[in-house]
Design brief:
It is a single chain. Helices cover 48% and strands 11% of the residues. The protein is an alpha/beta fold. The chain has two domains: 32-271, HUPs (Rossmann fold, 3-Layer(aba) Sandwich); 275-302, no CATH class. The strands form three sheets. The chain has a five-stranded parallel beta sheet with strand order 5-4-3-6-7, with helices on both faces. Strand 8 (275-276) and strand 9 form a beta hairpin. Helix 7 packs across helix 11 (250-269). 32% of the residues are buried. The structure holds iron/sulfur cluster and zinc ion (2 copies).
């Protein structure tokens, strides 16, 4: 039986509590609202772009933000999608995402690698690590298009699992500076060069989101990028999933202990000054930004 009412349970939380569908929806939405409130992710008169991939996480964020703010005329929502050019994956997400946005009257901007960089990801990955190329280019496009859309925040579907993986990856790669830019809201302070990223699903696990998205009918099937299996992240993901299975609560512990040291990391990072890429003039920590370095490696026009 559900812990809160006499109905049959559909989900067991990592604390052992069991919830029926209705109580699970309430638990999920309450926790997301709390994250938004406690970390001040959305403020009065915010204009927000939601980075949508067409997957369960980003469409859940879009749906929840839409439901919370649809009556609030001072908060505007837009959707921003990057089409990397991954056959059999991204192209299949585009039509359902268009439909999803149309039903909610949310304007959707689609930006493709093909148009921006004159190639599809599929054309350039041979002999390379697809995610290293793709991640850098996508991050750069999301920031530059969020600025073009003149939004104040960029909401992403990052969840507890993603964050736990990134924290561990940064530790394994001795890249602590990058961890200072994590947290429910990225960036240490407002800066004209960056649109701050907000992660309303920060404390929700991938399993919880999958259950929510499926039961709510937000997605009907779960697609996975064909390149994901090869990635470093995927190995860390599998390792953490194994640990979670053996020691439930591991991912929560990683993220909550990280949140305790985050202010110290941010304080340290604040000392570094933002530079601008000498090629494209976008913000960068080096003379040449990662996007231009990747494009240079690919020997393709910028
Ligand atoms: S899994 Fe890698 S290649 Fe696929 S969309 Fe994500 S970053 Fe890009
Ligand atoms: Zn119940
Ligand atoms: Zn550059």
């Amino acid at each position: 039986m559900c812990n809160n009412c006499p109905k049959n349970p559909v989900y067991k939380l990592h604390s052992g509590e069991q919830l029926c569908q209705n109580c699970f929806f309430k638990y999920f939405e309450k926790k997301v609202r709390k994250t938004i409130r406690v970390y001040k992710l959305v403020e009065k008169k915010d204009e927000i772009a939601v980075a949508v991939s067409g997957g369960k996480d980003s469409l859940t964020v879009l749906d929840i933000l839409y439901n919370i703010y649809k009556e609030n005329k001072k908060i505007t929502l837009k959707a921003l999608m990057i089409d990397e050019g991954i056959k059999g994956y991204r192209n299949e997400c585009i039509a359902p995402t268009k439909k999803f946005c149309k039903e909610r009257k949310i304007p959707l901007e689609i930006v493709s690698y093909k148009k921006e960089f004159s190639f599809d990801l599929d054309q350039v990955v041979k002999g390379r690590k697809p995610c290293s190329v793709c991640g850098v280019l996508r991050r750069s496009l999301l920031n530059s298009y969020a600025k073009k859309l003149q939004v104040k925040k960029l909401a992403t579907g990052h969840n507890l699992d993603d964050e736990a993986q990134t924290i561990i990856m940064n530790q394994f790669r001795k890249n602590i500076g990058a961890s200072a830019r994590l947290g429910p809201m990225t960036g240490i302070e407002d800066h004209e060069a960056f649109v701050r990223r907000i992660k309303p699903l920060y404390f929700m696990s991938e399993k919880e989101i999958m259950t929510y998205a499926f039961l709510k009918g937000i997605v009907r099937e779960f697609n996975e990028c064909p390149y994901n299996k090869e990635s470093y992240r995927n190995q860390v993901r599998e390792m953490l999933n194994n640990f979670e299975e053996l020691y439930p609560g591991t991912k929560h512990s990683i993220v909550s202990s990280f949140m305790e040291i985050l202010p110290a990391l941010q304080k340290q990072e604040k000392k570094g000054k933002i530079k601008y890429c000498m090629k494209c003039k976008e913000p960068s920590s080096q003379d040449v930004c990662q996007k231009c370095a990747v494009l240079e490696q690919l020997k393709l026009p910028q």
